[in-house]
Amino acid sequence: MSQVTRPTAAPITILRVPQTRFGEIEVEADKLIHLEGGLLGFPGLSDYVILDHGRESPFKWLQSTQEGPLCFVVIDPFIFQPAYSVELSEAEVAQLEIEDPSDVALAVIVTVPEDYFQMTANLQGPIVINTRTRKGRQLVLAEGRYTTRHLIADELRKNLTVKAAGGEATGPTGKLPSSTVK
Amino acid sequence: MLILTRKLGESITIGDEVKVTVLEIKGKHVRLGIEAPQSLRVHREEVYQRIQEENRLAAASSAVDLSSLDAVLKSMGP
């Protein structure tokens, strides 16, 4: 019988985040996303992690690792608006250290009113993330094309049905760099 | 509020790193050029306010069970 020698695993730094809606959670430090300048309205809080909800769910959590109670529902906008497009300025590309468009993931924040069917996504303030460097930023798009309250339930249902019927290969949850809640 | 009057082409400096220049005046519109470091956000105030407000609403509304949202989508049928 041959012996299998396992290589020593590289050390993983674990961050503990107390008082989240999941209780105290553990996050691998290299899964952190650094949002330059934080989110508008929440300055000074720039460290977040994206947590999966369920394998078949398009919704994810954007969880602050600095303030447990602070958490947002986010979604990859291409799931319900395949034609969504955002132009980044040269300065933004440089600041986020983007080298290739494939480095980029977008997340938009979902607001959930009492009537869940009326859930909206903020398409005017998308969060751009460089999945390679884990740097991100909330953009403020100029007036005109997109609103801060875009109704998503209908479009989500339509696009998820297309994918279920064998449409695109992206899968129902998009390409946001997420991890599972521990 | 500090109030300064500028003519076309003139500028204002704010701190050491921000400069605002009046580039064009056309009727009721003033075109402003802003030089500021990347770390400072510069936006039209009303849009900024709206995004900020929506972020706050979203944070307050995030205490939902995502399974309920999934169920909403499923319930809408094919």
Total strand count of chain A, please? Answer: 11
Percent strand of chain A equals 25-35%
Low-confidence regions of chain A: none
CA-based shape of chain B: elongated
- Indicate the radius of gyration of chain B in whole angstroms: 22 Å
Number of strands of chain B: 3
In quaternary terms, these chains amount to: heterodimer
The mean pLDDT of chain A is 87
Describe the structure in your own words.
The complex is a heterodimer of chains A (182) and B (78). With 182 residues, chain A is mostly beta strands. Chain A is built from two helices and eleven strands. In chain A, the strands form two sheets. Chain A has a seven-stranded mixed barrel with strand order 3-4-5-6-7-9-10. The relative contact order of chain A is 0.19. Chain B has 78 residues and is of the alpha+beta class. Helices cover 33% and strands 26% of the residues of chain B. In chain B, a hairpin with a 2-residue loop joins strand 2 and strand 3 (29-35). The longest helix of chain B has 16 residues, at 45-60. Chain A binds chain B through residues 21, 36-37, 39-42, 53-54, 56-59, 61, 70-73, 91, 95, 109-113, 116-117, 119, 122, 124-125, 138, 140, 142-143, 148-149, 153-154, 156-157, 160-161, and chain B through 38-39, 41, 43-44, 47-48, 50-59, 61-64, 66-70, 72-73, 76-78.
Q: Which short descriptors sum up this protein?
A:
heterodimer, A: 182 residues, mainly beta, 7-stranded mixed β-barrel, 2 helices, 10% helix, globular, B: 78 residues, alpha+beta, 3-stranded antiparallel sheet, 33% helix, elongated
Describe the protein's topology.
The complex is a heterodimer of chains A (182) and B (78).
Chain A: E1 14-20, E2 23-28, E3 33-35, E4 47-52, E5 59-64, E6 71-75, H1 90-95, E7 104-111, E8 120-121, E9 127-130, E10 135-138, E11 150-151, H2 153-164
Parallel strand pairs in A: 3-10
Antiparallel strand pairs in A: 1-2, 3-4, 4-5, 5-6, 6-7, 7-8, 7-9, 8-11, 9-10
Chain B: E1 11-14, E2 18-26, E3 29-35, H1 45-60, H2 66-75
